[in-house]
Sequence to fold (342 residues):
Amino acid sequence: MRLRTPAVLVLLAAALLASAVAGLALGAVRIAPGQVLDIVLGALTGDRRTGAFASIVWDVRMPRVLLGAVVGAGLAVSGTVLQALVRNQLADPFLLGASSGASAGAVLVIVLGAGAGLAALTVPVAAFAGSMAALVAVYAMARRGGTMTTGRLILAGVAVQYILSALTSLVLVLAASPDQIRSVLFWTLGGLGGARWDELALPAAALLAGTALLVALARPLDLLLAGEEGARTLGLDTGRFRAAVFVLSSLVIGVLVAYSGAIGFVGLMVPHAARMAVGAGHRALLPVAALGGAVFLTLADLVARTAAAPEEIPVGVVTALVGGPFFLWMLRRSGRAEGVTG
Fold:
C-alpha cells in the first residue's frame, strides 16, 4: 500500500533526526542523548560548550554524521536516476562501475601526486572523470546491438569493476608510502572517518544542486518509463537527455565518492524501497529516496563504528553485507535471470 508523499517525508525526516542523534551519542565513548542535544543547541545558538564530550560531538562526530547523510542521499538519488535512464531496477552507481571509476580516478591523483597543491579540487575532478568514463563504458557495452538486457547490463558492470579494481590494485602495489597505501584502501572500502567541517561544503552543494536539477527533470524521467519510442512520441530527445543526465549523475557521484570512497548498494536498495512507498513518479520519488538514503547510510556508519568497537569496520563493508543478499533477491525476483546467459 503506497502512502502519501508528505507523510513519508515527515516520517523519514524524523528517522533521520533520530539516527543523527544516535550517531552523535554512540561510539567508543557513549554520551547521553540529552547531553548531545545540549551541546548541539549550544553550538547553534553561539553558546558553545567546552570539554571532551563537546569536542567529540561537535568536532569529530557531527561532520561524520553530516557527510554520511549527504553521501547516502546523493547515492540514493543517483541510483534512482540511473535506474530510470537504463529502465532497469538493478542499476546502481556501484554495480554500474560509477563508484569504482570515481575511486580509481581519485586514487590515481592521490598516488601520482598530480596537483598536490590543489588536492581539494583535483581529487573531485578526477573522481568525476573516472565515474563518467565507467558509466559510458558500461552503457555502451550493454546497449550493443540496439537492445539492453539485465544480464548484459550486469555483466558489463562487473567487467568494468574488475578492470578498475585491477587498476586500483596496481596502484596499491606501486604506492610509495604507507600513507598512500592507507588512502588507497580507504577508496576501495569506503569510509567516513576522514570527515571534516571544512570539506562538507562541496559534497553538500553537489547534492543540493544535483537533486534540485533532477527534480526539475522529473517529467522527462517519467517519460522514459514509457519506453524509448513512447518518450520520443511525446517529444523527448532521448539521446541528448540521457547524455545530459549521465553527465549530471556522474558529477554528483564523483564529488561524493571523492570524500567517502566507494560505498555500494545504497543506490540499489533505497530507490526500490522508496518506489514501494510512493510509486514511480520522480517528483515524489527523488526527495523520498534522498531522505531514505541519508537515514540508511547514517545508520550503516553507526553500525560500522560500534559493531566491533573500539575497532572500526569500513562502512562499505556494512552496506555490502546488507546489499549483496538484497541484490540476489532482486535478481531472482526480476524473473529475467536468463538474460545473464543469453
Notes: The CA atoms of residues 218 and 282 lie 5 Å apart. Confidence is low (pLDDT under 50) at residues 337-342.
